[in-house]
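User: Could you check the structure of this?
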Amino acid sequence: MFADVELAGGEISGLEFLGLDVEEADDDVPGLLLRPCRALRGKQCSIYAHRPNCCRTFECRLLQQVERGAVPIGQAKEIIAKTLSQIEMLKALIRRLAGKEDDERLPLKERFLEALAFSEDSSAVGSEIHETRVHLEKAMSSVENLIHQAFLGD
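Assistant: Sure, the predicted structure tokens are below.
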């Protein structure tokens, strides 16, 4: 979902050495780790011991609730499974609209916007394209709401 991750100045060269895409930013932010992260292998970080500080210190809302005992681990796993399922459905809708134009290296939000733009510019018209666009917009809204409520909090 996120376009990039802010890095501290000392982290940039080490991440570049590990083969990650790092973009130099401006005076306020020395660098950005581009997303989706190339260190992610399946659902695990392949550079976990060397991950940037922002990744090291981030704890999602759901994890905090589990650690406090407010949410049982089984319920947390169900929320995660539901979120992953909705994301996969969203990706399928994006592929249906964008076809070969879908760039899976881009953040999900950007892929969504490009699929909508591509389907607008496409010579293909009709109720099926319109229905897919509507379904995609609803799916994106649902995924964003779920992520913000379950994982990011207020």
